[in-house]
Amino acid sequence: CLTSCPPTPQAAFAHLALAFRCDTFTLQQRVQVEKRARDAAEENIQEELGQCRAALERLGPSCTDAGCREMLEQLQRSLTVLAATIERATSAAEKLGAVHQEARMSRAAEVMVQHVENLKRHHMREHAELEEMKRLIQQNSRNRQLAETQDDAEPRLRPHPLMRTFQQVT
After folding, report:
1. Are 64 and 58 in contact, with CB atoms under 8 Å apart?
2. Confidence grade of residue 18 (pLDDT, cut at 50, 70, 90)
3. Contact between 49 and 83 (Cβ < 8 Å)
């Protein structure tokens, strides 16, 4: 049942706890690596956009007719729109990453809540068993005390076995 059965809440909790400890151990390092990768990608994009703008600036003086100038202006507007779109895409990607992380954490929290609920049920069963054992012990103790008091009273009513043999001999 290694692959076909879902893990128990306890096993899932243990797995999540281990993963959380490992993630926590490397989190700062991974954050720094990802920041550097994002910054490098953004710098590369800005560099490419800058090179396109510079190329358009160099083309400007060589465009003499109106159609060429209009096309040059359209390309500059397109580059401006592209730069804004890249900013929005970057922001949306970060939000999507945050939502994915929230979904993973939500599932992890769900497993932890399920594990805590199982622990509570187990505690309630153990507590009920303990209370039942206490009740049985108290009842047994009362029964024993009652039996002892009855045993104390009975010898006065019945003669001792040696007395019976003594009486039979005489």
Report:
1. no
2. confident
3. yes
Long-range pairs of 34-42 with CB within 8 A, sequence gap ≥ 24 = 38/90, 42/90
Question: How far from each other are the two terminal CA atoms of the chain, in whole angstroms?
Answer: 82
To 10 degrees, what angle do helices 9-59 and 66-157 make?
A: 170
φ, ψ at 64 (rounded to 5°): -105, -30
- Asked if residue 98 lies in contact with residue 110, where contact means CB atoms within 8 angstroms, the answer is no
Q: Which strand (E) or helix (H) includes residue 54?
A: helix 9-59
Local structure of residue 5 (DSSP, 8 states): S
Host H or E run for residue 138: helix 66-157
Unique residue bearing structure tokens 């899932």: 12
Residue 104's pLDDT band (boundaries 50, 70, 90)?
Answer: confident
- Integer angstrom CA distances of residue 65 from 24, 55, 56, 58, 123: 62, 18, 15, 16, 86
Paired tokens of 164: 């019976």
pTM for this predicted structure: 0.55
**Minimal CA–CA distance to 93: which of 142, 38, 54?**
38
Residues in the chain: 170
Confidence class of residue 154 from pLDDT cuts 50, 70 and 90?
low
